[in-house]
Amino acid sequence: MLAHLNAGARGAQDAFTLGLGDHFVAGAGALGDAVQGKDIAASYQERMDRERARDAEDSQNYPAARATGQVLGVGAQVLIPGAVLGRLGVMLVPAAQGARIAQAAPLILRETAALAAAGGAVGVAGQAADDVTNRKIGTPGDYGGAIVGGTLGALAARRGNVAQASAAAGFTQSVAQDTLNGGLNTQSAARARESAVAGATVGGLVGAGVARHIDGLPMKAKELTGERLSRVRNFVRGHKTGPTQKTAHKLPGGGHTLPDLRTYKNGLPQELIESKFGRKARLSPRQIQATLELKNYRVDHSVPRDIGAALGLPSSVIFPWDWAMTQPQPEPGATAP
After folding, report:
1. According to the per-residue pLDDT averaged within each range, which of 12-26, 207-221, 279-293, 316-330 is highest?
2. How far are the Cα atoms of 239, 250, 280, 323 from residue 195, in angstroms, in the given order?
3. Is pLDDT larger for residue 83 or for residue 199?
4. Is 322 exposed, middle or buried (0-12, 13-18, 19+ CB in 10 A)?
5. Residue of 30, 82, 35, 323 whose CA lies nearest to 196
6. Burial class (CB in 10 A: 0-12, 13-18, 19+), 96
7. Fewest Cβ atoms closer than 10 Å to its Cβ: which of 74, 169, 279, 300?
8. What pLDDT is attached to residue 48?
9. pLDDT band per the 50, 70, 90 thresholds, residue 140
10. Contact in structure between 317 and 126 (CB atoms under 8 Å)
């Protein structure tokens, strides 16, 4: 049991430290040997050989334990960059880029399906860009994995942390592609980890930067942005929107409200929509009354992080960072091409 735990711990260490853990251990030991008068270079090489031999022994004798440790190490690599870059987004755009109004209408199934499809399309576009950059033709497995990663990333982006969503997209795409292209191998954990870290970095920085820019727009521009995003939602829902000219609607309890949009389906009126945008957007007392008294009244509320995610996630998928990725290595004993 102890041998399995140690093998798993060493696997987690290698994955979490980007493969540098053995170097740290060997270097620390070599420094201690140098204090005792030994040659530091020779000691370092001897200890590195020992660490590599132990890793090879773990892979041969305790493959499941080492693989489990590597998965845990990769998971930590995914979560930590996402958390750090999520904090960066909070610093760039105060108040976590704004909480959504409680009365805001959630996505319906049709909208969620459209979001997933858009994510899959982004994954395909990213793979195509990779093929063009590297002058190659991707396999069906490459494109299948890209669809899986892009879809998951788009759905995860709804939670508001584009860095973590981009990390999830990169990690999932890498694992799915290796699985579809013949199965996971000894390099799969390293590539998945690097994909997750790269995705979190690019997606997190782009998403936070875009959200900060949007957050600084004038009030009138934010109002127009909110209405345009509402029109997109209604298009996905299969509804048309009427002119932006506001018309007063009486409330059963007295008073009236001025919704931003009215939707139509097959020529028949459907919903009254109040479009809100921004971190500080709030409903007026009459608008709150309308949510309680009118069955066909809907509140759409978008925040800067929504647009940040819409641009940050595709950037992380399409960005040509794979030149630095771990490439497949020949198995021991095989002849390198």
Report:
1. 279-293
2. 39, 54, 35, 11
3. 199
4. middle
5. 82
6. middle
7. 279
8. 83
9. very high
10. yes
What is the per-residue pLDDT for 335?
Answer: 43
Handedness of CA 172, 18, 312, 86 (dihedral sign): positive
Count CB atoms within 10 A of the CB of residue 60: 10
CA-based end-to-end distance of the chain: 40
- Distance separating alpha carbons of residues 335 and 337, to the nearest angstrom: 6
- Residue 184 · residue 196 · CB < 8 Å: no
Report phi then psi at 249, rounded to 5: -120, 125
Contact 200, 162 (CB under 8 A): no
Both structure tokens of 189: 């954990």
CA-to-CA distance for 170 and 152, rounded, in angstroms? Answer: 10
CB 324 within 8 A of CB 199: no
Q: Give per-residue pLDDT as tens, 251-310.
A: 998 899 999 998 988 888 889 999 999 888 899 999 999 999 999 999 999 988 888 888
Residue type, 148: V
Tokens of 238: 């299969």
Residue 30 burial class via C-beta count within 10 angstroms: exposed 0-12, middle 13-18, buried 19 and up: buried
Lookup: tokens for 228: 């345009």
CB 131 within 8 A of CB 318: no
- Dist. CA 253–CA 291, nearest whole Å: 12
Please state the length of the chain.
337
Cross-strand pairs, 268: 265
* Two structure tokens written together for 166: 């981009």
Cβ pair 207, 161 in contact under 8 A: no
Query: Taking Cα atoms as reference points, which of 302, 249, 298, 251 lies closest to residue 272?
Result: 298
